[in-house]
Design a protein that fits this description.
single chain, alpha/beta, ten-stranded mixed beta sheet, 12 strands, about 30% strand, globular
Length: about 240
């Protein structure tokens, strides 16, 4: 049976984490050995105090200090790898899972080829968290935040394909991509063994770009899967337009 671990990090985001966990409860884990891991790096509080009736599949890990995005998720991924996870599903705590079959779908993409190292789903803005207010009520929840991407070397930034567009089915394919956001992806444990983890000197931001480039340079492939999705409450950690 394939072992899949879902990992996330809580940083002053208990409300978001609890809402996220409500969607995790509904995941289809049939034919999978499943574990969820939360690394808590919030000073002065403990996420475990807020979780009622903690499910058996959920492990809580105290980081002890703020290790940033890179260090927090590295700790979570290493914990999952030590558990023996074949696949590690990295996802922000300020998200909501929209497709309950997402784990199987992403495992299938990774299993398609040995060279496929990382896969991301389509990511929508969660309702009310769009960058713009131009959308009709029936379009909310269908506004794209990420549908594949590339890294713009000239301007040193990542470009999200489809961002701010209402989904019309244009990005429904599963295909190679040049950039995957650290917001949500699934990776093989063997990929971590070969290419390593996030560079913790980067702390927060660009650690995902740096890591993906290592994989691409090493001959690995990044894939976007347009047939599964999550919702993202964008910029909850730093705030929109944070300096």
């Amino acid at each position: 049976m394939k072992k899949v671990a879902l990992v996330t990090v809580n940083f002053n985001g208990t409300k978001d984490t609890l809402e996220f966990l409500e969607t995790v409860k509904k995941l289809n884990t049939k034919d999978l050995e499943f574990k969820a891991v939360i690394v808590d790096k919030t000073p002065g509080s403990w996420i475990g105090d807020e979780i009622k009736n903690k499910p058996e599949y959920l492990d809580l890990v105290q980081a002890g200090c703020d290790k940033g995005f890179a260090g927090g998720y590295n700790l979570a991924m290493r914990y999952a790898a030590a558990w023996g996870a074949d696949y590690i599903f990295v996802i922000n705590n300020d998200t909501l899972i929209g497709d309950m079959d997402i784990l199987q779908k992403m495992v299938n993409v990774l299993d398609d080829s040995e060279d496929v190292r990382v896969v991301s789903p389509k990511i929508y803005f969660a309702k009310g968290y769009e960058f713009q207010d131009k959308y009709k009520k029936n379009e909310l929840g269908k506004v794209i935040w990420y549908a594949g991407g590339e890294f713009d070397w000239a301007n040193v930034r990542s470009i999200h394909r489809g961002i701010d567009e209402v989904d019309t089915g244009l990005y429904k394919l599963t295909e190679k991509t040049g950039f995957i956001s650290g917001c949500c992806f699934m990776v093989k444990r063997t990929t971590l063994e070969k290419f390593g983890y996030f560079d913790e000197d980067m702390f927060a931001y660009f650690e995902d770009n740096d890591w993906m480039q290592r994989i691409l340079i090493g001959g690995g492939k990044l894939y976007y899967s347009g047939n599964t999705h999550i919702y993202h409450k964008v910029s909850q950690t730093m705030g929109i337009g944070s300096p």
